[in-house]
């Protein structure tokens, strides 16, 4: 459904407080519907709005419309926005791959980090947090789509990885995060979410002390309802709130067309 500008007609750009109020309410209604379909309480699902590529002026309007948390994929962009908008009452969540040379920034201001998949990053981040005198909620990213180029640790290595994280007391494991396969085939997408839930349940049974509350961060604009049906407790939603991005997703995820 690409429009003349190449952007999806499905996600009109939100410009005003009314636009944002409408989009946020619509997403929340869809979250509630999906939850009710499977007998879940919508209040157990956190909506994390994703503001990557969105400029400051529109973010300010979105915050005026009620957003209090914002997810950013890239640390550099998040850091710039954090400094520019320190006057706002908003928390910044890092949801993309982290390089060790940016760990200090994350340790300084991030409210959470959702894409932990390397021990080296855990080690550096832990050290930076120790220096800053903070702890940080983290999610372990799992590659549930079996695409070799994707970020995230392999499901078979999850138990070992969680055990290794015990060395880093300034990281507070909250649970698991994943990106589903990018496919219009809902059942293939669903399989990724089901796998993450099964892994969470298995870890809970075997090593509950390593998983914290056992949250599941899964679901984005195109697939959050399926993710909620499969047990998601955090949905990361950008385009359905802010409007379509002109930056292709391949800029954020390796190996995409
Ligand atoms: C961009 C992004 C999202 C949100 O994607 P939308 O299609 O805008 O909803 C979710 N998770 C991660 C890791 C992202 O980078």
| Span of the ends, CA to CA | 17 Å
Spans of at least 5 consecutive residues whose pLDDT stays below 50 are 1-6
Strand order of the largest sheet: 2-3-4-5-6-7
Order of helices and strands: HEHEHEHEHEHEHEHEH
Count of helical segments?
9
Function: Pyridoxal 5'-phosphate (PLP)-binding protein, which is involved in PLP homeostasis.
InterPro entries: Ala_racemase_N (IPR001608), PLP-binding_barrel (IPR029066), PyrdxlP_homeostasis (IPR011078)
Keywords: Pyridoxal phosphate
Family: Belongs to the pyridoxal phosphate-binding protein YggS/PROSC family.
Kindly describe this structure:
α4 packs across α5 (119-132). The protein has a single domain (17-243), classed as Alanine racemase (TIM Barrel, Alpha-Beta Barrel). It has helices at residues 17-37, 56-64, 75-84, 103-109, 119-132, 158-164, 186-206, 224-229, 239-242, and strands at residues 46-49, 69-72, 91-94, 112-116, 136-141, 171-177, 215-217, 234-237. By secondary structure, the chain is an alpha/beta fold. β2, α3 (75-84) and β3 (91-94) form a beta-alpha-beta unit. Bound molecules: pyridoxal-5'-phosphate. Pyridoxal-5'-phosphate (PLP) is lined by residues 50, 52, 73, 95-96, 179, 220-222, 236-239, 252. The site of pyridoxal-5'-phosphate (PLP) has 14 residues, from β8. Belongs to the pyridoxal phosphate-binding protein YggS/PROSC family. Keywords: Pyridoxal phosphate. InterPro entries: Ala_racemase_N (IPR001608), PLP-binding_barrel (IPR029066), PyrdxlP_homeostasis (IPR011078).
């Amino acid at each position: 459904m690409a429009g003349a500008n190449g952007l999806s007609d499905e996600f009109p750009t939100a410009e005003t407080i009314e636009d944002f109020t409408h989009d946020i309410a619509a997403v929340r209604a869809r979250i509630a519907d999906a939850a009710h379909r499977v007998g879940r309480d919508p209040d157990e699902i956190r909506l994390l709005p994703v503001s990557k590529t969105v400029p400051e002026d529109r973010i300010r309007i979105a915050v005026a419309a009620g957003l209090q948390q914002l997810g950013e994929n890239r640390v550099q962009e998040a850091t710039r926005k954090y400094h520019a908008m320190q006057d706002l009452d908003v928390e910044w969540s890092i949801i993309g791959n982290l390089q060790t040379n940016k760990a200090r920034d994350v340790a300084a201001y991030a409210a959470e980090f959702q894409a932990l998949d390397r021990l080296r990053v855990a080690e550096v981040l832990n050290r930076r947090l120790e220096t800053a005198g903070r702890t940080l909620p983290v999610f372990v990213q799992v590659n549930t789509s079996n695409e070799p180029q994707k970020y995230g640790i392999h499901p078979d290595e999850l138990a070992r990885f969680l055990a290794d994280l015990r060395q880093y007391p300034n990281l507070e494991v909250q649970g698991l995060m994943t990106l589903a396969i990018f496919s219009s085939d809902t059942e293939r997408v669903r399989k990724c979410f089901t796998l993450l839930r099964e892994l969470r349940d298995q870890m809970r049974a075997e090593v509950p002390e390593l998983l914290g509350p056992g949250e599941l961060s899964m679901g984005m604009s195109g697939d959050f309802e399926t993710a909620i049906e499969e047990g998601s407790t955090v949905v990361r939603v950008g385009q359905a709130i802010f409007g379509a991005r002109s930056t292709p997703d391949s800029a954020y995820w390796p190996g995409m067309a």
